[in-house]
Amino acid sequence: MSGDAKPKVLLAYSGGLDTSCILVWLIEQGYDVFAYMANVGQDEDFKAARAKGLKLGAKKVIISDLVKEFVEDYIWPAVQANAIYEDRYLLGTALARPCIAKTMVEVAKQEGATFISHGATGKGNDQIRFELSCYALYPEVQVIAPWRMPEFYKRFRGRQDLFEYAQKNNIPLPVTPKSPWSMDANLMHISFESGILEDPKAHAPDLYLMTTGPEKSPDKPEKLEIEFEKGVPVKVTNLNCGTTKSQALDIFVYLNEVGGRHGIGRIDIVENRFIGMKSRGVYETPGGTILYHAHIDIEAFTMDREVRKIKQSLGLKFSEQVYQGFWYSPECEYTKLCIASSQQCVRGKVTLSVYKGQVYILGRESPLSLYNEELVSMDVQGEYDPVDAAGFIKINSLRLKEFNRLRSKAKST
After folding, report:
1. How far apart are CA 193 and CA 182, in angstroms?
2. Residues in a beta bridge with 280
3. Neighbours of 49 (CB within 10 A)
4. Among 97, 280, 347, 364, the one annotated catalytic
5. Of 48, 167, 245, 347, which residue is 20 to 30 A from 383 by alpha carbon distance?
6. pLDDT number for residue 3
């Protein structure tokens, strides 16, 4: 690159081998590199990573603490939506990406960086999620994705090439051996994929970090009471020991702790990546799984049947939008507004127990409940006249009778 002023690039940096090599490689290409790290609840030595980034030549290492924002602005809307992708994945990674990208864009603008770079591979979802979020929030930004650039991926064909480059450029090598799979962690979950997990038939080893296996978990269940306001958890009480949490971050951390102790939220699935291929992922999401079950229960208790049908379809659409990286799209903004509106009367308490990997709903109460105990009772007639059911059944059977009559007539001709 020519000229006196070097272009500035903000690199999504983890301190690991890949992004450390990318940092040095970008400097080789003529960029002033600013390294960015986001704390979304992962177990990370940020102080060591900052020192490493500066030693490797970064002009600055910026670290943002986004844990509270991640819970309140990203996890809570997902709880309201009962967000789940393809019936099983609670979207832990997909929810963190727009949270990280938003602040990354703010930092890029503050530092005058017109380029953003990341270490996501060319086959995964993360490249899409990061870049769609960045383009939505910073339309004029240019993205450098080394693992999609022939001059990079032909030079670094495997981990051994990265090791050799690191040794040549005095990049500290990992002290501990690399796990035979890749891992992404945040406050909501840990995901494992690639490596030995790419064989969908192979049983995953004991790789879990947030959760205890059910066979080693306590032999006594723990009972929790979770209180919701407008579909958002506002208080959790452990009915076994009396522990109470009422701040958003404290609630989620505590549910992770209790759920993790009882092996809640483990799944091993094959999912459809947005880019068009199937992949195998192993996930653990303890607190998110507890809230998923609790919220569905209080929602069914307080929401009109027909409204809930519409809301369920919106929840599925929202899950797809988040998974595919469209958090900052106009359609996702609209979906979130509709879901939030549906939650105005979702208020009350759910009692549940966690035990040996399972969540068991025990009871619920709400001042806005649509449940009429007298109306539904088999022992009290109330205002309901059973005779009316005959007409209801007759009207609904008309369609079925006509369908089969006409279908039989067509077959006989």
Report:
1. 5
2. 270
3. 20
4. 97
5. 347
6. 56
Tens-digit pLDDT profile for residues 369-379: 999 887 777 77
Q: Which amino acid is at 16?
A: G
Q: Which residue of the set 14, 50, 64, 126 is catalytic?
A: 126
Residue 166 sits at the vertex; the CA angle it makes with 163 and 193, to the nearest 5 degrees, is 50
CB atoms within 10 A of CB 283: 27
Are 297 and 387 a contacting pair, CB within 8 Å? no
Catalytic residue among 73, 148, 161, 182: 182
Q: Does residue 126 carry a catalytic annotation? A: yes
Query: How far, in Å, are 390, 399, 400, 408 from residue 395 at the CA level?
Result: 9, 8, 10, 21
Q: Would residue 305 show up in a list of annotated catalytic residues for this protein? A: no
Q: Up-side HSE of residue 276: CA atoms within 13 Å toward CB?
A: 1
Q: Is residue 182 annotated as a catalytic residue, yes or no? A: yes
* Residue found by looking up tokens 């092996």 in the block: 263
Q: Are 85 and 272 in contact (CB under 8 A)?
A: no
- Kindly tell me the burial class for residue 250, based on how many C-beta atoms sit within 10 Å of its own C-beta (0-12, 13-18, 19 or more): middle
Report whether 383 contacts 375 (CB < 8 A): yes
pLDDT of 299-329, one tens digit each?
A: 999 999 999 999 999 999 999 999 999 999 9
Among 3-7, 48-52, 115-119, 215-219, name the one with the lowest average pLDDT.
3-7
